[in-house]
Design a protein that fits this description.
Helices cover 19% and strands 36% of the residues. The radius of gyration is 21 Å and the shape is globular. By secondary structure, it is α+β, with helices and mostly antiparallel strands. An eight-stranded antiparallel β-sheet has the order 1-4-5-8-7-6-2-3, with no helix packed on it. Strand 7 and strand 8 form a beta hairpin. It contains three helices and eight strands; from the N terminus they run H-H-E-E-E-E-E-E-E-E-H.
């Protein structure tokens, strides 16, 4: 008697069941709630040719990073240093993704490499509950 006749159908059924579960909208999958905030920052890094330091103002922030307009060309996963000019605090981060809006402006999503929940001087403490749980209240 071959066991694969009994085992494989069960495994494939588990796979179908896992794929058929409802997916949460992208906004609900986020690890942290974003807050629209215009905070002055300075972004340091190395472009293809030389080091750079570019002043910017955040579009939004979270306890895991932020979104900043950046004209300097950077690559995904590149490490950068961001300075919050209001607190003069530095954080090492990486380029998580690029966004280009309809006006052609480039935004870079930065993710902190080490937890920095108070980097933005905003209390994100009440943000420990996942968004999909909050919506059911």
């Amino acid at each position: 008697m071959r066991l694969d006749k009994f085992i494989l159908p069960r495994w494939s059924a588990l796979g179908r069941e896992a794929r058929s579960t409802t997916r949460l909208p992208a906004a609900e999958k986020r690890r942290a709630h974003r807050v629209a905030a215009s905070m002055p920052v300075l972004v340091y890094g190395h472009s293809a040719h030389a080091p750079f330091a570019e002043p910017a103002t955040t579009a939004n922030v979270s306890k895991t990073g932020g979104l900043v307009p950046l004209s300097t060309h950077v690559i995904r996963f590149q490490k950068l240093v961001i300075t919050n000019l209001q607190t003069n605090e530095d954080a090492i981060c990486r380029v998580a993704r690029f966004i280009q809006n309809d006006d052609g402006h480039n935004f870079v999503a930065l993710e902190f490499l080490h937890p920095a929940p108070h980097f933005w001087a905003i209390d994100f403490a009440g943000d420990s509950t996942p968004v999909h749980t909050k919506l059911n209240l």
